[in-house]
């Protein structure tokens, strides 16, 4: 098994649409993702820096057991289902999303 992984989802929400997007995320999407095999936890952050168009920024950070578990998720039915759900709810046009992932490279405790 490889080392623990992190999955980062930075996103910006069209002004006036925050309630609809956050209701979907907090209303079950985040909890459902964490229930997927290999996922350990999730945190959502409201960021202080909007994008160049003034859209408010957020970041989702997911802890995952390994990159292999994350790849399995990407290739699985759940990830495809979430994409379909976002499209059906009209959320794709309300959000700009940037995804990245990797493994722990350094830890400092204070």
Structurally, the number of domains stands at: 1
Strand percent estimate? 25-35%
Q: Please outline the major beta sheet.
A: 4 strands, antiparallel
Number of helices: 3
Annotated CATH architecture:
2-Layer Sandwich
The rounded Rg comes to 15 Å
CATH topology: Alpha-Beta Plaits
Helix content: 25-40%
Specify the CATH class.
Answer: Alpha Beta
User: What is the H-and-E element order?
Assistant: EHEEHHE
> What does the overall shape look like?
globular
Poorly predicted regions = none
**Structural class, from secondary structure content?**
alpha+beta
Strand order of the largest sheet: 2-3-1-4
Quote the average pLDDT: 95
Distance between the termini: 28 Å
Task: Explain the overall architecture.
The protein is globular. The two termini are 28 Å apart. The protein contains 3 helices and 4 strands. The chain is of the alpha+beta class and 110 residues long. The protein has one domain: 2-Layer Sandwich (Alpha-Beta Plaits). It has a 4-stranded antiparallel β-sheet with strand order 2-3-1-4. The mean pLDDT is 95.
Quick recap:
The protein is of the alpha+beta class.
Summary keywords:
35% helix, single chain, 110 residues, 4-stranded antiparallel beta sheet, Alpha-Beta Plaits, 3 helices, alpha+beta, 4 strands
List the helices and strands and how they pair.
Elements: E1 5-13, H1 18-34, E2 39-47, E3 57-64, H2 67-75, H3 77-88, E4 95-103
Antiparallel strand pairs: 1-3, 1-4, 2-3
